[in-house]
Amino acid sequence: MSSFFGLSPEQESLREIAHKFAADKIRPVAAGLDEASRFPAELINEAHSLGLINLTLPIELGGSGLSMFDACLVIEEIAWGCSGFATSMVANDLALTPIRIGGTEEQKRRFIEPIVTGGALASFCLTEPGAGSDAGGLQTTVEDDGNSWVINGSKQWITNAGYASQYTVFATIDRAKKHKGICCIAVPRSTPGITVGHHENKMGQRCSDTCSVTFDGVKVPKDYMIGAPGEGFKIAMQTLDASRPMTAGIAVGIARAACEHAVSYAKDRKQFGSPISSFQAIQFMLADMATAIESSRLLTMRSAWLLDQGKPASLESSMAKRMSADTAMSVATDAVQIYGGYGYTKDYPVEKLMRDAKLLQIYEGTSQIQRIVIARELLRA
Ligand code: CAA
Fold first, then answer.
1. Helix-strand-coil percent breakdown of the chain, rounded to 5?
2. Is the pLDDT of residue 1 over 70?
3. pTM for this structure?
4. Ligand 1, pocket residues at CB < 6 Å
């Protein structure tokens, strides 16, 4: 464990491995994957062989067993390479964390270990066409038919759904009970009745695979339910608390990439006979960008560190996610501004970063939802 303001030699070397992978493998193909909206299955496999996927899952189940702090170090580097790739990379942590939190030891062995050791993918299926921010209002049902659980309903915006071999599904056993009726169920992709929609044609993070998933009379054995009936909502919220620092880390990676590009361009680009970096208007923009990035990283690492100490971190995770997502958006937008007309074209990298950043303000709880969580925590205290 590092001190908060310095990294150990092991952490430096972990960060270097992630940076090298991002610089050598991801960056060279990122624009092409974006243009083609193509999922980089082969790169995901390479990341798996380097231990850069399943970052926070326990070593005894085949994961990398990193602390959240170390996982955030890694993910910032990967997102610096391409945030769509980073989103696909952490989706397994998101999908399997509910089982780590709520599953029995036997369920962890059955539903986490084969995915992680086999280099397979899993998806977290909470959001629905009519239930995004209002996760407690989900409509997918799970019924007891005596021998099995039977799932009916549709999930929307599911990361890696087209490539996943297992889904962690949140469904209600009694809609009238609202969040108290929500259950969490592990569902193998091979179960009859599952239909996966097309790879969504998104504005940004276009290489990450995002699809709908429909469950039509999908039957699974009784012991595929994670936790007791009705515990699913809390499991989902605890999972999001644990995952938001990594999402914040993705945002920091985007912002850092945008700021680096902007600094370098500002030194090269000449107007009025001087590099534009000599103008205070540009210097102030760069100074604000760098300050916002540093603040976002500190919040991110602080929330990760709290989780690593086993301390409550809903407030800090939401602060980190809110601040970092909004920073990614503003820094990428300012980077485009510094590039001027060139920044508005696909010939320069900041255009992609601006499109990619927008998703950070939307997925894993919008910036507005993070404010709700923060305000509730403040008012409760
Ligand atoms: N930990 C444990 N329990 C929690 C909790 C937490 N962090 N947050 C809430 N709960 C509990 C509450 O204590 C309450 O329990 P009791 O009934 O026992 O009192 C219960 O859950 C209901 O809580 P709320 O009344 O606060 O619930 P709400 O309906 O008002 O919703 C919300 C709260 C924060 C808005 C929640 O719905 C939410 O987080 N919405 C956003 C959903 C989201 O982030 N979706 C992202 C999907 S994943 C994704 O995008 C990833 C991807 O694939 C890219």
1. 60, 15, 25
2. no
3. 0.97
4. 94, 124, 126-127, 133-136, 159, 179, 233-234, 237-238, 240-241, 314, 363-365, 369, 372-373
